[in-house]
Write a structure and sequence with these properties.
The structure is a homodimer. Chain A is of the alpha+beta class. The first copy, chain A, has a domain at 370-669: Beta-galactosidase, Chain A, domain 5 (Distorted Sandwich), CATH 2.70.98.70. In chain A, 31% of the residues lie in helices and 26% in strands. In chain A, strands 7, 8, 9, 10, 12, 16, 17, 20 and 21 form a nine-stranded antiparallel sheet that branches. Chain A has a six-stranded antiparallel sheet with strand order 6-11-19-18-15-13, with no helix packed on it. In chain A, strand 1 and strand 2 form a beta hairpin. Chain A is elongated and about 90 Å long. At the A-B interface, strand 12, strand 14, strand 15 and strand 21 of A face helix 4, strand 12, strand 14 and strand 15 of B.
Chain lengths: 732, 732
């Protein structure tokens, strides 16, 4: 853990008298240029008009500041949320227009909070051990601090000294005290919620010139630096910028990080917060954006809600502040263009100017194959994203071998997800939650998040003996991470990544290697997935593929349970899966084709005596209809050492307008395992127009090791962990 | 049935010598102005470039004309389809460019067909009693005649007399003879396939100056006018332009109708085909377009494939020809703009010019509430579409009380479908078919079309005693149509339509009345659905709602069959429904809320001692995964006389970006039946902000009849079939 070197020697600044205001969200000089910018840039002026339209109806009105009562989605929850947004907006409008009615609106609301807050206790709907006061959970109270802190800063000069004191003591202090005393164990922690709390208290500290608050925000309640903003920045992000909870929460964490960093930088430029940890904030934003689909949605792994996109306020704010902090980045401009709105800030104005003056902004972010380490020191596994194709036809394969990822992590070691042409093809279920929909348990995470979505069987990875990784014990899972064995994403035509997980199940080694091969004969890449499960004893290995689309064809027979369906199992998520169909033994090369958004996809797999297949559907035991009724194709093998070889390909398409169906059949014809043992796995994939031979070294994955083996009398020699031979021979 | 008055007296024209060419798709003078238009109008020039790009790679190449072998989706099927498209395009390009390479390409292909066709017999994959020769079904051969007929006309002047004869005798005559002799019973019929066959033979007749073909095309093989083009125009369309098979097939029928009419009009303007039957072609196009969703897809009832839209070639052609025939229609221009392409024709050029010169073209077609009669004389029931709201927030309720609609009709008497905000909300399943996808039974209609999708239980209407209307006997169903009792779509705030069906089940009268009420307190209309089932004996009445979306909430308890599911029944489509949950008795006002595309929808229903509810899901007994696993909410009542009262409403929305959920609860609080007997039904609907009282006369639906009844001591007096009182009283 690194600590900002400048932090101790500038403490005396914090004890200064009342500083310049505004300073948190924007400075005086920024406001002056912003006022000019509004008339210059269309996107800035439309943001201004929207903000005015949202605030003006409240001018001169009494705004309700109700006694907290309801859970998320209920009236008091939504009202307090609307209130802090209104205060933020009105505060900013006061700065931009000088119209005191805006300031007065904020002042009046603040005085109501100053009257309300001191008497509050734990929210009546609180269900977690981090209860809020205005809201059911402390996190929302932290949101409130962030936005109202900015609002206070904006109307600072409008307030009398006594108003300021009333608000600081009545509205802010009870919240800050609650966080730093009652909820000290929640505040002093490394977590996105702590980041929000730090940002809230830090912003209020800067807004109210309270150096104690600022110090606590930066270094935790004990001021040792073990917790607080710097420690969270150090530990939540890997050196590559990967956020430990995954992209859905990265989006959420980036907002307080950027808002507070901006305030800190305005107030204390000497901290150089944007340069901190080799510009970790810049890396974190870039990393989060690389983990999005073409439609802007963040990849759905861990407890993600899939409709969260980079169109959210969080990413608009972060991107706009990043523009101010890091300068123009042409590769990110497509995101700004798609967002088609900017914040009323210096960064927002710069983006508005970039959009107005930059020609030929690409349609999409510059997506590329990337690998991110996980962990504060980058030693806790990571995520690789193999990509192929351009713009609308981009194929993205996500391979996750990261750490557990805290309480919202899933038991999904060595999971893969596939996106293609802007659509999810092999999905991660994400979280089971209807956020802020009151009827769905007050908008909280629903129980099926833990009982189904986080379980291993809910993922595109192997579940052993009907159990989940680490028996679904989060603490156990947090102790270990998978190990990346080798990878190469530099070569566009052959990309590979390999990782192993040996702790998730006692006595079972799991080793998955993914090859993304782009052959000139095919417009889409072939994904070769070699997944080895090894043990001294017999186990049941289940490998699901949560495909999205319509089943078109299989080349094997199965029994469909047409009159009566039962569940696939009784525990560990299996109880949520209907067993729709079963193929008890599937030999040879098994093939399964489905159609999704008018593209055909096939999974061709190595069958065998110990191989069976299932078609399953989510929804059993889901009496509240919380789960989507989506399908899975599950390949089961039983044995000691079993190797799953799956070739996943997109091929052809169906055009409903012309009714033309092209290339509706997979290009794979046969998959043969030529050798498979502890040392080597050698396989041959016969395609319609080529033969692919892959030899990989399972034990020694050194990049320079020489290998020499003999397959059916033919020698194969290579160096490094693998070799791939492609014969452009037409087979028949 | 009317017959074109001019048709007999101009017969001598048909015996004329070789006429002007081209004349079928376009005339010489049109070609001259088209050539200029291509450089003038962007949409015309892009169509030209696209066509050139599609054809140029074939110039100077040998094009395969294979021996017919495969079903739809297979190679020979797709090749012959691609061939006629190529011939059409190349023929037109020859006219537009004068480049003889295009003509030569068409000629060479024609000569191959002239060699192939005489030896053909019934296609090896034929499964119907109208087999094709080049294709598995005759219909596709008719398509071939239409396009190649146009191609022949385009290169007429390029061909030598002997070429012409070779092609006429070798390529065309075997097909024409097959249709008019072998398949005479299929050709002499009133049906969309006959329309295609007539158009094919008629176009070939005009292209080859064969008056026999033209006569047969117009008046059937016996030349009596009982069959053929005129008879089909007379009988397939109602006086309002409603096409008997519904909108999906209307789209398909409009193409041959418009192409042949255009050719006829070019050749024989004195026929005045576009004025025929009070401009029936114009009405038919308008009627078809009114039956589309905002995304351009045709409403899904009868055997429809839902991805068929007005972006298809069929509607582009019809709309473009209609522009030439009927002049500029500003209400249709939005469709042309959305299509963003035009045909290379006179009409296409006119549309291109309209698009270039018309300002402020609306985003959507001028959708409005409409009613269409069905039947040649307009006496076979019909379809009413009640609409409310504008552009993107349009609500469309479709009430179908039409005739059976031939072989692709469904047993769906008194069915409703609901579209809102451009999405399907209460769906018709449509057809079970993966068109042209070879793996899915050669792209044919799948068996589940008949066994599930056409059955009554697959619709949002009452199924009695677990059976379908007319016991799913098509001939019986064709004999009767429901009767519209009254309607009023003129008043935008209160729209109503009522119809009865008394033949579908022995001894059971069905009577459905739909009110669409737009109250000032609500942004979306309330739909009040009063569905009466009357009998002297006890029956089981099932009323499904095939909702699309996520179940959010019910106000009643149910048992979810979480560990084991069985089917809802064994016959008549019930065998395809999983019984997910059951509520054996639901009293009072039952409410069910679901979320679709971020809008909440609720169905509030009158419960009672005899009322039970089911949640079902399509997919049981569907071993080939042909069906979509979509849900239904089914209300069941048992008794002699039962009245279903359902209030369907869209309310509120969820914004995933801001996470704000607004108005997540229905506005309906209680539904009370104040009186319900043979004579009158009176009901009271208590809303959050108003009370609605509806009194309807069930027996005497005369528009001037005076009614005077007494409810709880309070008199209600009105005239006409119904009265609606709205009290703007806040209830609590």
């Amino acid at each position: 853990m690194r600590v900002a070197p400048a932090i101790f020697c500038i403490l005396f600044f914090l004890n200064d008298a009342i500083g310049q205001h505004p300073v948190v969200y924007c400075t005086n000089s920024e406001i002056i240029s912003l006022k000019q910018g509004i008339s210059l840039y269309p996107s800035l002026s439309s943001s201004f008009r929207e903000m005015k339209a949202a605030v003006d109806p409240f001018i001169g009105k009494e705004v309700d500041v109700p006694l907290p009562k309801d859970a998320a989605g209920g009236y008091t929850h939504d009202k307090h949320k609307a209130n802090y947004t209104l205060m933020f907006n009105a505060g900013l409008l006061y700065q931009l227009t000088g119209n005191k009615e805006y300031a007065e609106l904020v002042r009046k609301m603040f005085l109501k909070y100053a009257a309300l807050n001191p008497a509050l206790t734990k929210h009546p709907q609180a269900t977690t051990n981090s209860p809020g006061r205005l809201f059911w959970q402390a996190l929302n109270d932290a949101n409130w601090l962030v936005y109202t802190g900015i609002a206070f800063d904006c109307i600072h000069h409008y307030l009398s000294v006594s108003d300021r004191q009333k608000i600081a003591e009545g509205a802010f202090k009870p919240e800050v005290d609650f966080f730093t005393k009652d909820l000290r164990n929640w505040f002093d922690i490394i977590h996105n919620q702590a980041l929000w709390a730090c940002a809230g208290i830090g912003i209020v500290g800067i807004a109210t010139d309270n150096s104690d608050y600022i110090n606590i925000a930066l270094k935790g309640t004990s001021l040792t630096g073990k917790y607080g903003f710097w420690a969270n920045l150090d530990q939540l992000f890997s050196p590559d910028g990967y956020y430990v909870e995954g992209p859905y929460y990265a989006r959420y964490a980036l907002l307080p990080v950027y808002l507070f960093a901006n305030a800190l930088n305005n107030k204390f430029p000497q901290y150089k917060v944007f340069a901190y940890r080799d510009s970790i904030l810049q890396k974190a934003l870039s990393c989060a954006l690389q983990q999005t689909n073409l439609d802007g949605s963040f990849y759905g792994y861990n407890d993600a809600l899939k409709d969260k996109t980079f169109f959210t306020n969080e990413i608009v704010e972060a991107l706009n502040i990043s523009r101010k902090a890091y300068g123009k980045d042409i590769t990110l401009l497509p995101v700004a263009k798609l967002q088609s709105r900017v914040t009323l800030s210096k960064g927002g104005m710069l983006i508005a100017s970039d959009l107005a003056t930059t020609k030929n902004i690409p349609a999409h972010l510059a997506y590329r194959s990337v690998e991110y380490t996980d962990g504060a020191s980058g030693d806790k596994g990571g995520v690789s994203i193999l990509r192929s194709g351009r713009t609308d036809s981009l194929t993205s394969l996500i391979f996750k071998y990261a750490s557990h990822g805290m309480g919202h992590g899933h038991f999904d070691r060595l999971n893969i997800n596939l996106y293609d042409n802007g659509h999810e093809i092999l999905q991660d279920y994400g979280a089971v939650r209807f956020i802020n929909i009151e009827q769905k348990w007050g908008g909280r995470y629903l129980p099926e998040t833990k009982t189904f979505a986080q379980q291993t069987i809910a993922h595109n990875t192997i579940a052993v003996d009907g159990a989940s990784d680490f028996n679904a014990n989060e603490n156990a899972s947090e102790q270990y991470t998978p190990v990346k064995l080798f990878s190469n994403i530099k070569e566009p035509y052959i990309q590979v990544v390999s990782a192993a997980e040996n702790r998730a199940y006692n006595g079972v080694g799991l080793h998955r290697t993914l090859y993304m091969l782009s052959l000139k004969e095919y417009s889409k890449p072939l994904i070769v997935d070699v997944f080895k499960a090894n043990s001294n004893t017999v186990h049941q290995y289940d490998l699901p593929f949560y495909y999205l689309g319509n089943l078109i064809n299989t080349n094997f027979r199965y029994t469909y349970f047409g009159n009566g369906q039962t569940t696939l199992g009784a525990h560990n998520g299996y109880q949520y899966l209907w067993k729709e169909a079963e193929a008890p033994v599937v030999k040879g090369t098994m093939q399964f084709t489905f159609l999704q958004h008018n593209t055909y996809y096939s999974i061709s797999s190595l069958g065998g005596d110990s191989t069976s297949a299932y078609f399953a559907r989510i929804g059993a035991n889901d009496s509240s209809f919380n789960l989507r009724r989506e399908p899975a194709y599950i390949i089961r093998k039983k044995g000691n050492n079993e190797t799953f070889v799956n070739v996943i390909e997109a091929h052809g398409n169906f055009n409903p307008t012309t009714e033309i169906s092209a290339n509706a059949y997979p290009s794979v014809k046969h998959i043969l395992l030529l050798r498979d043992d502890e040392q080597y796995t050698v396989l041959k994939i016969e395609l319609k127009q080529a033969i692919i031979r892959i030899a990989q070294s399972n034990r020694d994955t050194g990049t320079k090791t020489q290998h020499s083996i003999n397959i059916n009398g033919e020698p194969i020699n290579w160096s490094g962990p693998y070799t791939i031979q492609i014969f452009n021979q037409t087979t028949d």
